[in-house]
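Lab notebook, design round three. We kept the backbone fixed and only want residue identities now. Task for the bench partner: fill in a sequence for the structure below.
Input C-alpha cells:
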C-alpha cells in the first residue's frame, strides 16, 4: 500500500481510533503535550457536597471537569447542566443523567447564547480548569447572569521536542497548542487539524498554515476527517 501517512496527535487517541486510522494506511502517534491533575481538598469536597443538595444550573466545558466533580459528589444531584462538546455531554450523562442536560454547544460563544435564551437562569456554577477561556464567563456577565467559578482541575503543559516529520498534526486544546509551539516550529508544510474553533484560533497565533476543523468537537469525528482528507489527496 506504499508509505503510511504519518500523523502526530498531541494527546493519545486510544487503541481503537488508531486501529481505524491504520486500516486507511494512516499511522497516528499519540504524544501528550499536557497533563491534568484533579484538585482534591477538604474545602472543595465541602463546597461540592453543599451544592449537591441544591438545584443549581452547572456548566462543564470538558469531560475532565465532569470526572473531577464526580469523584467528590456524595450523591447524584438534580442539577440542570450545560456542556461544551459531545465527549463532555456523554461524561455528564453517565455521571448525572441524560435528562439533566438541558443545553449543549460546540464552543463557549454558542453555549453562552443557549444559556441566555433561557431567561429563568440567573446564576451559573462553572466547574472548570485553571486555564479556562474568557469567552463564556464574559458573555454571561455582560448579560447579567451571575457566575460562580469553581476550579476542579489544573492543566500542566509538558512540551516535547518533535524531530520527526509528520504529514499532519492533531490539536485538542489551546493549552496543548501552546505547549507544542513553545518548543517546536513549522519549518515545512504540514496539515494541521483542530478539535474546534477555539483551538484553531490558538494555532493561528503561531502558524499561518491552514487548519481543518470537524463539524463537531469530537475526537472520533476528527480522526474520520483525517482519513477523509488524506484519502482525497491520494485519489488525485
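Proposed sequence:
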Amino acid at each position: 500500500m506504499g508509505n503510511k501517512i504519518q500523523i502526530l496527535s498531541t494527546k493519545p487517541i486510544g487503541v481503537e481510533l488508531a486501529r481505524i486510522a491504520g486500516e486507511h494506511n494512516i499511522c497516528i502517534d499519540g504524544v501528550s503535550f499536557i497533563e491534568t491533575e484533579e484538585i482534591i481538598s477538604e474545602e472543595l469536597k465541602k463546597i461540592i457536597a453543599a451544592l449537591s443538595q441544591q438545584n443549581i444550573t452547572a456548566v462543564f466545558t470538558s469531560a475532565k471537569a465532569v470526572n473531577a466533580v464526580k469523584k467528590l459528589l456524595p450523591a447524584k444531584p438534580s442539577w440542570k447542566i450545560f456542556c461544551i462538546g459531545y465527549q463532555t455531554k456523554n461524561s455528564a450523562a453517565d455521571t448525572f443523567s441524560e435528562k439533566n442536560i438541558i443545553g449543549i454547544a460546540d464552543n463557549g460563544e454558542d453555549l453562552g447564547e443557549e444559556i441566555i435564551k433561557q431567561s429563568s437562569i440567573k446564576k451559573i456554577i462553572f466547574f472548570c480548569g485553571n486555564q479556562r477561556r474568557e469567552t463564556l464567563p464574559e458573555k454571561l456577565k455582560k448579560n447579567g447572569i451571575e457566575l460562580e467559578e469553581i476550579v476542579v482541575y489544573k492543566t500542566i503543559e509538558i512540551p516535547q521536542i518533535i524531530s520527526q516529520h509528520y504529514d499532519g498534526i492533531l490539536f485538542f486544546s489551546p493549552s496543548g497548542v501552546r505547549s507544542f509551539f513553545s518548543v517546536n516550529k513549522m519549518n515545512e508544510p504540514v496539515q494541521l487539524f483542530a478539535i474546534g474553533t477555539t483551538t484553531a484560533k490558538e494555532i493561528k497565533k503561531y502558524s499561518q498554515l491552514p487548519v481543518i476543523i470537524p463539524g463537531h468537537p469530537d475526537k472520533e469525528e476528527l480522526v474520520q476527517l483525517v482519513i477523509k482528507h488524506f484519502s482525497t489527496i491520494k485519489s488525485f
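Keep this in mind before ordering anything: The chain is about 35% helix and 25% strand.
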